[in-house]
Design brief:
The protein has 190 residues and is mostly helical. Helices cover 65% and strands 0% of the residues. The protein contains eight helices and no strands.
Length: 190
């Protein structure tokens, strides 16, 4: 799934779905973005500078893909951040240590939910470029029958459904906001 989609759904769930508040929603967005930060930085590093210097002719797409997603510091960090092991362990520790009383606005909780949610959704929607979900405990990879982008693995359908869902959530939130603004100070229509 696209980084912005991970972030949007986590934000909507935290802030509007369960009413955890603005800070929790922002923390959820940060957690949902975290696994993709290395690939964003790697793309900027490997594509940005050479492209600005030499244009598209300088791009060896397979080499760049491997450098950004598989090998090197960006790829290795991306693999680590796409593993469910660390966020799941931190979430279990959060619960067992009863850290909720210290995290009153649920900022750390929603950061972990966003991070773990991203890894699970990517596990379910990466047909050609999976990441090992249980790294470093296991290097096992699962090739999903569904891709968030590849038309050979229902990528168009997934894109349309996920973006339609974003549109529906935004429409519902807009209608709620419009209705709230239309009410008077005591919740009555003027």
């Amino acid at each position: 799934m696209e980084t912005y989609s991970h972030s949007f759904f986590t934000w909507a769930l935290a802030k509007h779905g369960v009413g955890a508040g603005r800070a929790a929603g922002i923390a959820g967005v940060a957690g949902a973005m975290l696994p993709d930060v290395p690939s964003i930085a790697g793309t900027a590093y490997y594509i940005g500078v050479p492209f600005l210097r030499e244009g598209w002719s300088s791009m060896d797409s397979e080499k760049v893909f491997n450098a950004v997603y598989i090998s090197g510091p960006f790829g290795a960090t991306g693999v680590a951040l796409h593993s469910a092991v660390l966020p799941a362990a931190l979430l279990i520790s959060y619960i067992l240590l009863k850290l909720g009383h210290r995290d009153r606005r649920r900022i750390f909780l929603w950061f972990l939910i966003g991070w773990l949610g991203h890894t699970v959704v990517d596990f379910l929607t990466h047909a050609d470029n999976p990441r090992p979900l249980f790294w470093p405990l296991s290097s096992w990879e699962w090739y999903s029958p569904v891709s968030y982008f590849d038309p050979l693995h229902h990528g168009r359908e997934f894109f349309l459904i996920s973006h339609a869902l974003i549109f529906v959530v935004m429409a519902v939130l807009l209608v709620r906001r419009t209705r709230r603004r239309g009410k008077g100070p005591k919740g009555e229509n003027p």
